[in-house]
């Protein structure tokens, strides 16, 4: 059973995927789109991954405010969740993603990845952190 982890951003979606046993999460790719409201190709790519890897569940990062309220980014993530559920027919779980991008950036800095190269993988790392948090919670 594979689970897909997503870090939904304004122009990118970081993608992570679990191993078949659902123990570890690996950053997979970053899907980029030309504008925030252009989701057709993004949803099509996610559907390809769902089919290719026989994904059974999606974990979507939920960007809550530090005071636990849902702001504009959180509302957009909820809208994306509804689109994912319609398109894939899979359950989509929202997972608190507060500070995952900060943790991903710190991890890349500690491993010596140059600033200009971090942008290429930061969303994948954040998606992996979101998914790994979920996987750890269900064990």
Structure description:
The protein has 139 residues and is α/β, with parallel strands linked by helices. The protein contains four helices and five strands. The chain has a five-stranded mixed β-sheet, with helices on both faces. A hairpin with a 3-residue loop joins strand 1 and strand 2. Helix 1 packs across helix 2 and helix 3 crosses helix 4. The radius of gyration is 14 Å and the shape is globular. The model has no long low-confidence stretch (mean pLDDT 88).
* Average pLDDT level: 88
Ranges with pLDDT <50 over ≥5 residues? none
Major sheet strand order = 3-2-1-4-5
Largest sheet: 5 strands, mixed
What global shape is seen?
Answer: globular
What class, by secondary structure content?
A: alpha/beta
Share of β-strand residues: 25-35%
The run of helices and strands is EEEHEHEHH
Instruction: Give the count of helical stretches.
Output: 4
Number of strands: 5
| Helical proportion, percent range | 40-55%
Rg value: 14 Å
From the N-terminal CA to the C-terminal CA, the straight-line distance is 14 Å
Features:
alpha/beta; 4 helices; single chain; 139 residues
Topology (SSEs and partners):
Elements: E1 2-8, E2 12-18, E3 25-32, H1 40-52, E4 55-62, H2 72-88, E5 92-96, H3 100-110, H4 115-138
Parallel strand pairs: 1-4, 4-5
Antiparallel strand pairs: 1-2, 2-3
Provide a brief overview of the structure.
Helices cover about 45% and strands about 25% of the residues.
């Amino acid at each position: 059973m594979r689970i897909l982890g997503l870090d939904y951003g304004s122009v990118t979606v970081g993608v992570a995927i679990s191993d078949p046993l659902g123990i570890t999460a690996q950053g997979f790719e970053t899907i980029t789109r030309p504008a925030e409201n252009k989701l057709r190709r993004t949803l099509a790519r996610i559907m390809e991954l769902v089919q290719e890897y026989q994904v059974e569940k999606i974990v979507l990062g939920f960007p809550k405010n530090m005071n636990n309220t849902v702001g504009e980014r959180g509302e957009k993530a909820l809208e994306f969740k509804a689109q994912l559920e319609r398109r894939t027919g899979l359950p989509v779980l929202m997972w608190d993603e507060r500070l995952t991008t900060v943790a991903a950036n710190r991890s890349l800095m500690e491993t010596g990845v140059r600033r200009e190269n971090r942008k290429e993988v930061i969303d994948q790392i954040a998606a992996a952190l979101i998914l790994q948090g979920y996987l750890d919670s269900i064990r």
